[in-house]
Amino acid sequence: MENSFLKTIDRSSASLHPGYFALVMATGIVSIASHFLGFDSVAWALFLINITAYIILWLLTLRRIFWHSLSLWSDLTDHSLGAGFFTIVAGTAVLGSQVEILTGKTATAALLWGLGLILWIILIYIFFTMVTIKEIKPDISKGINGAWLVAVVATQGISILAALVVSEFPDWLDPVLFFALSMYLLGCMLYILIISFIVYRFSSLKLEPEELSPPYWINMGAVAITTLAGSTLILNSARWGFLTSILPFLKGFTLFFWATCTWWIPLLLILGGWRHVIKKFPWSTIPCTGAWSSP
Known about the structure:
Shape: globular
Order of helices and strands: HHHHHHHHHHHHH
């Protein structure tokens, strides 16, 4: 029985999908929303679930790093799967935000911010370097997908958490807020670049119903968290004179992304109707590989 259990763990770690930390992202977001809506019992229950999920996923990931490194590297450098690793960064940032908002333990949240930042630096440069220098690349219909926008979510998650834990660094207030602002602007740049390719793929190349998989909702989700990052900086503007001086820009840019986010929602619902009602694509569960390999 024990041997069978270990084999199951080994298989699970070997085939662990890069996007599994999206579980931590989603659970954390719902938990924080529940807290702000006054449902603290729900928020705390989800918080405990999230801590458990985060630990388990990290244990499986570490086993994959040390025992199945070739498989991990293959996924990380893959156009369709590689961007899924950014869910590790985004999940870490969301969990850090949960810790700060629900418990007020800023030091712990700051540690998660530091971990998220280190992971972001490693992943952002490995992924974009490898997809750039690969000699054999897929065409745009297979290479670009909505999962790429998790890079934006990760970047903005780090920006938001930096602004939340800035009180932990009283002697470094200005540099930390400058870093949060820089990450916000970088996330904006990444969104504009990546979404341009996705819209081109949507509008100029044939799109099959099976290709319109769940990650296309990140088209909206990435710009939603960008709006939140901008709003968080606006709320911190009184702490740093430079933020105050660019407040009109921040408000305008944040409103720009809010409008973009709002525009996406009806379109994504319409496309979902086309997929399932007109094209009669089944509502059954989609394998992870398919979900992360199309726009």
